[in-house]
Amino acid sequence: MADFVGAVDQGTTSTRFMIFDHDGAEVAHHQLEHEQIMPRAGWVEHNPLEIWERTQTVVGTALAKAGLQGGDLAAIGITNQRETTIVWDRTTGRPLTNAIVWQDTRTDRIAAALERDGRGDVIRRKAGLPPATYFSAGKIQWVLDNVEGAREAAERGDAIFGTPDTWLIWNMTGGPDGGTHVTDVTNASRTMLMDLETLEWDEELLGFFGIPRTMLPDIRPSSHPTAYGTTARTRMRADVPVTGVLGDQQAATVGQVCFSPGEAKNTYGTGNFMLLNTGNEIVRSKHGLLTTVAYQLGEDDPVYALEGSIAVTGSAVQWLRDQLGIITRADDVEALAAKVDDSGGVVFVPAFSGLFAPYWRSDARGAIVGLSRFNTSSHIARATLEAICYQSRDVADAMVADTEAHGSAIDLDVLKVDGGVTANRLCMQLQADILGVPVSKPKVPETTALGAAYAAGLATGFWSGADELRANWAEAERWEPTWSEEQRAEGHARWKRAVERTLDWVEVDG
Fold this sequence. Notes:
The chain is built from 16 helices and 22 strands. By secondary structure, the protein is an alpha/beta fold. The strands form seven sheets. Strands 16-17-15-14-20-21-22 form a seven-stranded mixed beta sheet. Strands 3-2-1-5-13 form a five-stranded mixed beta sheet, with helices on both faces. Strands 4-7 form a two-stranded antiparallel sheet. Helix 4 (about 135-145) crosses helix 5 and helix 10 (about 315-325) packs antiparallel against helix 12 (about 375-405). The N and C termini lie far apart (about 60 Å).
């Protein structure tokens, strides 16, 4: 039996390939960034061909670093930026246009129209999602309505859709020469097109957006020995089975071994994403969260989750670096923020693309409030870190409210964290202080790729089950709360006042 499992982690800013051993330890990895294309305000695009090329390169380079061949891998898992929408020609393999990224807000009028005429309530009931620019269906409709020849090609069956997992699997398994056109339940649950109960594409929802069913990939479990095919066009030079697929935040949930109802994790990346396992029950949110599929292993019943998706957290630090120029490297924000004991009354709400959970206000825009001549760049840096943590506090509060309303109230004992921002110890201490619960970071911080590897390895018997994966998990660092309840309440009230000032800033209805 092969001794390793590989994972493609296709993210918003980069693609990497990681190789893990049986203990869940990293053996090798390679990572490459891809271009962020912003043709106008609110538009964010990627080049799908660049992503495919970078994927092949990172796979080959990581294998070479480890001194391995493709045949040394028992399986490959894929995890990906969700909701990002790619439409391509199945006969040529050429994209009809650039990928429209999850952060893109060009579909705000589509989302607003759905909400205005009542279709939004149907989408919430069936798909567990509010009408928002975030999700894929509106982006597919935009392509069909605005890219010349796209609708005709879709109706002929030539134009097909996929999120990045589907795009990569299709290319890895043959592309125009018989590539498999599939996705998994977690990615499908992010489109506004899948019924959470049936796990199938819903004809009524497709009709809302005018999307032909022939465009859509087949929906498969997240972990399955034969559902996705084998590699044929990568630089592995071997037929390796693709047996695990998970959207990035669901992958991190699996990587953090949150297999029991009530367990939660928070991933800190370009945005923040908190998921709470709700077991086999669908908990429909009344407080601005998403109801989503957490994972489905083989033929088992699906496991569901409540999710709070926050658009701008780590990317707010990048904004300090790239637009304001007050730091030269993203890592510098911690030292700059540590020069002051607090934010000096400054609150930064980074609603650059509107506000996601739990507000869902596409009319919001970013604001820095509370400034006086006393304030310095250090106060702004600290307010940026606090913004990351307060947005997560809002989501955690909504989770408590939703589960209370459902009759299964949770009391969050600890928050498992992962992602790049967790290297910032000041930010993690602020998170513990603002939440009022301990924050725990695992020894393997790259839980997204690890979760995809786990899904792939479970399908092939490389790992026997959840208990073995739990045994692999170990804590690296823990932050305990230090603030008083009064500090916590005052800070959160100030944050809520600042959020109110970002609303009604742009017109989204036309």
